[in-house]
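User: I'll paste a sequence; please echo it back and then give the predicted structure.

Assistant: Echoing your sequence first, then the prediction.
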Amino acid sequence: MRQHRTSLRFSGFTQYKKAPIPLSLLFPLLTWACLLLWPGEVQAQQTTTIDAGETMYRLHCLRCHGKVGDGRGPDSSALIVPPTDFHSPQSTAKSELDLRAIVIWGLVFSPMHGWWDRLSSEEIREVINYIRQLAPYQPRI
């Protein structure tokens, strides 16, 4: 003889659905909050990052890459391989990830050594932001 199985129902476990917040109310609220909070905060953060990046650049990069990032620093004439001109098309086409890798690991067969053991991740990010201020990113098409 076959037994018939019935589904078990647990008393006390009732599921209630919450009414969703209408998007027509959520979007204006978020937009308004973004307009009030973000511009000042982002601008202040960028200014601080650029100032810190400029300080790092002057301490560690200026001697080779020059004051404006043209590769004509005071020590550049003594180097066998000239330092990178950040304004060149090859340099401005590099992504921030490429620049980060170069700063961290250096360039093979060049005097550019890695800075992974001397600069923190935040300091490297600040230097790259400053370099991008000197020579903005211009992707090749």
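DSSP finds five helices and no strands in the chain. The mean pLDDT is 81.
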